[in-house]
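Q: Now give one record:
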Amino acid sequence: MPPTGSRARREEILQLATTTGLASVEELSQHFGVTASTIRRDLARLTADGRLARTYGGAMALSAHPEASLRQRTGEAYEQKRAIARWAAAQVRPGETVLLDAGSTVGALAHQLRTVDDLTVATTGLTALQELADVETVHVECLGGTWRPVSQAFVGPLTEAALERLTFDRVFLSADGVTADGGICEAELRQTRLKELMARRAAHTYVLAHAAKLGRAPFHAWAALPAGWTLVTDAAADADQVAKFTERGVRVVRTEPVEEAAPRPGEAQD
């Protein structure tokens, strides 16, 4: 007999996701003997926790690969992300208006942008907001919407409506995975729909992804990218993977970690 407690029910939903792949709200409602609204609340909780990905229309694209939280990702490939962020920041000119996605690498970019004068930054991510909140020379626009805890970001129709009223010189996007033929792979359609819209609103599109993310497709939601976009990765990127992108007209930049000199005795440290 199916479990009746909410926690136990969510765990079985996750188990069903691993074994059967797809299910509808109605099917799950019948299986557990609860209302459809109860199932939707369960799915919303599991999605917010990064344990499954949903699609529209009541069906779920369920993955056996749990989505890592932003906190978990922050310490991964730290030096590579810093190198990527430094290169990306060097592309931004004073007076420009840029759009920043959520994500740890884009958060590292936001830190680098603190020294750019007369800059306007719009963002969906908490990390970028925290990095730039106290910088007087940067004008910050927060694109609100539905809060997504696992990625520390805003998504949904309110975010999309705000974007429709803005254009940007450059957009910097994050990715759970990125492939030459599919584009950006993410845990759910709200994320990929938003990334596609972000790319459409900018003159130049950059995807910031360290080498381990190239060719990776852990989920079932995809964002197609406009022609002429730039992939910014690190020196460890596999040559065969890079070739797949360049063959499709993608500009690929491979960055090298920057060794910083140790501070001299008596010098202040950041």
About this structure: The mean pLDDT is 85.
